[in-house]
Amino acid sequence: MTGSEETPSFRLAYVPGATPAKWVRIWNERLPGVPLTLVAVPSTEAADVLRAGEADAGLVRLPVDRTFFSAIPLYTETTVVVVPKDHLITAADEVSLADLADEVLFHPLDDVFDWDSPPGEPAFERPATTEGAIELVAAGVGLLIVPQSLARLHHRRDLTYRPVVDAPRSSVALSWPEEATTDLVEDFIGIVRGRTVNSTRGRTPAKDEADQKRKRPEQTGTRQRQAAAKSTGGKPASRGARGRTGSGGAKPAAKRGKPRRKS
Prior knowledge:
Strand order of the largest sheet: 2-1-3-10-4
Number of helices: 7
Structural class: alpha/beta
Mean pLDDT: 84
Number of strands: 10
Strand content: 15-25%
């Protein structure tokens, strides 16, 4: 390797609420020589980061521009409403959008839901971020509908949440620019899809390829011995028998019959 060549690496962007830890662990076990760098990005900026080549792939929220990106849906989250712990809604195990119709609901600028008609009463302002909206919920001036992972990410002791049964849901996907489907991207695809190291659809690590090359001479010799065994009736000739064959070998003795009686 020349001094101008760079060590291969893989950059994975992820939006708030996404949890790449499991896949990162498997990556480090399978490709210890290829560092994986995590790049935290806001949901609204994930597509721009991938377009600019600042990450090789990303855990993003759907939808994405399918004319430019490839995407593999991974899971869909439960939608919840974040409320103060002393709110009347906490008396129920789950709620509907109709139950929230008279509540002030915040819709931050980084809202992951594309509402056709935002539910609830409009707030006096749109918070810039989900984290900022959580602070306003804690102040008792409104409620917030988010995917469950974001409610957990911004957990506070004075807040809780309840599932909203008929609200839109947010799906997380692995996405990357279709024209930039590199070998390392394929490796990560194999990991998130649960493929094993020896999967025929995954790439073979360089170490395994080297092991296969070292085994080839031995495998060739085995095939030659098997072919020789077939020519001798299906069983390999014994060492002694192999020594007696050839032009200098002794001929087998003729079979002797019974002597004829003289009349």
